[in-house]
Amino acid sequence: MIYWEFCFGEGVAVLKYDPSLGISLCPAEFGKATTEQKAAFKMLMDTMKRC
User: What pTM, to 2 d.p., does this model score?
Assistant: First the structure.
């Protein structure tokens, strides 16, 4: 498994790769993420959609 935390905007995101489950991307704080962290994650998702 690969677990990579990285900064984007005002938040921290996590990219996880598990060979049996695939790739997932989520806020580092998961359900406890603040409004600002969730907004940064949404910005990341919107940016990725444009690529």
Answer: 0.69
